Amino acid sequence: MNTVNGQAIRVLVIDDEPQIRKFLDISLRAQGHVVLLAEDGRSGLEALATQGADLVILDLGLPDMDGHDVLRALREWSNVPVLVLSVRADESGKVRALDAGANDYVTKPFGVPELMARVRALLRDAVVHATTSESPVHDDGRLRIDLARREVVLDGQVLALTRKEYALLALLVRNADRVVTQPQLLREVWGPTHDEDTHYLRILLAKLRHKLGDDAASPRWIVTEPGVGLRFRRG
Length: 235
Fold this sequence. Notes:
The protein is an alpha/beta fold.
């Protein structure tokens, strides 16, 4: 059995075609890998969050979610290598997938030797990814933030956050106990042309703190580092 740092290599296959899942299951197991199978995007994300993987093989044409949306959701909390399988052979589709966070792209139909070579290439530098070393869930008894499900629960109640409020909170949680600078926050949440728009951040932070009940003067979770940025306090 192949291992990374003494642990069995786990490959998650997210594909809605039973024949492809079976074929990849057999091929990957023959290489000594542990294989996890999911037939749609949501079950794939849940499997990654709960069971972990060293590599994800992702079909873009899923029944419940577009594969690009799965990629974007995954990249909010995991750095696991992703190999896209798709019938879409156009260059723009490949570029879009790579921009969304894919590490490699293989078009269907594909040859087994090429696919296994690409799998080996992606695993070659694999050590321990975020999915095996860090949990996508913060839960301190009061505040639960599930990055895989995009769900925030405070004292048992699901919080209704706007897209940008969630983006800001998720970014801070992914960097818990580390300072995230103001320019980085502005670029990540609003885009590369908003490096100087600090008033956007102040307004959004105030709204987020209000929903969390997090007092700016004595914060429980989001700490301001004056002149530098913000830090999410885990414990």
